[in-house]
Amino acid sequence: MTKRLGVIAVVVFGLSTIVPVVLLSSPAAANCGTAGCAAPVPCNTHAGACWSPALSTRWQYQLQAARDKAGNCLYPSTGGINVGITGTPFTGGGSVSPMVFDIDFQTDGACTGGTITQENGAAVAAIHARSAKAICYIDAGGAESFRPDFPQYDAFNTNCGGCLFGKPIGGFRNEFWLNINNDRGQRDFILSRIGARLDRCVANGFDGVEMDVVDAWSNRTGLTISPDTQLLFNTALANLAHSKGLTVALKNDVEQVPDLALYFDYAINEQCQQYKECANYTTNFVNAGKAVFQVEYKLSTSKFCPQANTENRNAILKTFDLFDTPWTPCR
Questions:
Q1: Going along the chain, which residue ranges are E strands?
Q2: N or C: which end of the chain has fewer CB within 10 A?
């Protein structure tokens, strides 16, 4: 069993940090047939537009508010989101703009006095005004103490005698792995909270959603989470998003892509070329007409853009902190 480092974006009172997470790469000894996954629920077109990105769709990934050298929030009218960003692609030519922005549904506390007090509806409206789309970032598998709804997570954990929280994610003390088993109703509780967050994504006009931290089974969480349990949780998340009229991205969980691709509308992957694990995306997403949004942090564009472009993945180069810049799209 080999180890590799992944990343989790963490926003703490307006100061986001990227912390390493040890991932244990091994085959998923499960499938939806053995796990008993519910059947896929089609996206509810009566509840939302059920937007589906084209295979070739340039994207931007910004989870921290842009700031000046003194740490002051830039672009305050859009909660620190730089909706006017442009860049020169690896393929050359003139400057281009993102067609899709993946941003948090809540405004970075750096723009609201240090704590989270508002949501990113203004940024979504500005993105739409530029004829682009917005994906709503949600940490589905972690509990973050800086979120306004953390007291509900904490109360459930207290009432069940500590059954909900696992280890801090990556050793970071303000975010905890969640127990997605359901022996004490944990999974039902988490899904209820995610449902409430999805309602806010819908209210703020987002077009789709990214569910992050959905690979607990392959991490050192301090919890016993089987591959079957992860499949049950992830498929439930996808069905829940679809019931709200939102399309949904599968974030990482590379080993389980063959089972999960049927439930998810597109994929978001971090560093699949660095770790040589992009093949599942070609087979299960691109070949099925579903877009793949890829971000690399450590490779130079010459090391990943040619292959990503050839294999029709929408790849960008960013740094771990996920500010607005740097941003270099492959095409």
A1: 2-12, 15-25, 59-61, 100-104, 133-139, 142-144, 165-168, 175-178, 208-212, 247-251, 266-270, 292-296, 314-317, 328-329
A2: N
C-alpha span between 273 and 192 (Å, rounded): 35
pLDDT by residue (tens digit) across 216-232?
Answer: 999 999 999 999 999 99
Query: pLDDT per residue over 277-324, tens digit each?
Result: 999 999 999 999 999 999 999 999 999 999 999 999 999 999 999 999
Claim: this prediction has a pTM higher than 0.85? yes
Q: Which amino acid is at 219?
A: N
**CA 211 – CA 213 distance, rounded (Å):** 7
Count CB neighbours of 302 within 10 A: 8
Cα distances (angstroms) measured from residue 320 to each of 70, 103, 189, 298: 20, 15, 31, 9
* Residues forming a β-bridge with 25: 2
Listed residue (95, 56, 96, 59) closest to 310, CA to CA: 56
CA 71 – CA 264 distance, rounded (Å): 37
As a dihedral over the C-alpha atoms of residue 208, residue 210, residue 211, residue 216, rounded to 10 degrees, the angle is 150
Please state the separation of Cα 67 from the chain's center in Å.
22
Pick from 16, 8, 59, 17: nearest CA to 294: 59
Tokens 């877009």 identify what position?
291
Q: Phi and psi (nearest 5°) for 155?
A: -65, -40
What distance in Å separates the CA atoms of residue 120 and residue 201, rounded to the nearest whole number? 9
